[in-house]
Design brief:
It is a single chain. This protein has 187 residues and is mainly beta. The chain has one helix spanning 7-25; strands at residues 33-34, 41-42, 80-82, 87-91, 103-112, 117-126, 135-142, 145-153, 161-171, 178-185. The chain has a 4-stranded mixed sheet with strand order 3-8-7-10, with no helix packed on it. Residues 12-27 have low confidence and may be disordered.
Length: 187
């Protein structure tokens, strides 16, 4: 006994399969990152969960997983002022003049001190023949969003002195991906 499927029923089944497959492909855009070396695709659902059993992977997203998507972290901490103890790194020739500023600030690098705070070390150089009191502003951000502003007052810097200063940002459980520092004083 042979059964024939009517074209109308066949068209209905094909349409239903198309709708189901479109729903499975997902219209919601989930942030993804493809590792070029391994080919693995990372999403908020699988980041930090590689070594977990499937039953554990259904747990709610943890704070650590929020680092993958900065939009999920909406934290802005109050501004802070710091007066760190600096380290004299050495001296440079006094070169301040029309084309050289009185003080310069070297770019900061961001590091995490495990279970403590984000930290950056800045280097302030006095290019003048006098003593300066440098003031630096550092902004810690995550995905372009401000997390905390820190104003640093450096110890007095003698002629030609170069100082290294630690600047502490938010706790490491608050995610930060960049720090930008600028010299406020002297101009």
């Amino acid at each position: 006994m042979t059964r024939r499927i009517s074209p109308t029923v066949l068209a209905g089944v094909v349409g239903l399969v198309t709708i189901v497959s479109a729903a499975d492909s997902g219209f919601a855009q989930v942030p993804q990152f493809r590792d070029e070396k391994t080919g693995k695709v990372w999403t908020p659902e699988n980041v930090s969960k590689d070594n977990q059993a499937p039953s554990q992977q259904t747990m709610p997203m943890t704070q650590a997983d929020k680092a993958f998507d900065p939009n999920r972290q909406n934290i802005t901490l109050p501004p802070m002022t710091q007066r760190p103890r600096g380290n004299l790194m050495g001296t440079v020739p006094v070169t301040a003049g029309p084309s050289v500023p009185i003080a310069t600030l070297d770019s900061a690098s961001l590091q995490a001190v495990p279970q403590q705070n984000w930290v950056t070390v800045i280097y302030v150089t006095n290019n003048s023949g006098g003593v300066i009191d440098a003031v630096v502003n550092c902004q810690f951000t995550n995905g372009g969003r401000p997390v905390q502003d820190v104003t640093v007052t450096a110890p007095p810097s003698g002629p030609g002195e170069r100082w290294g200063l630690p600047v502490y940002g938010p706790r490491v459980d608050i995610f930060v991906d960049r720090v930008t520092c600028r010299l406020i004083s002297p101009p």
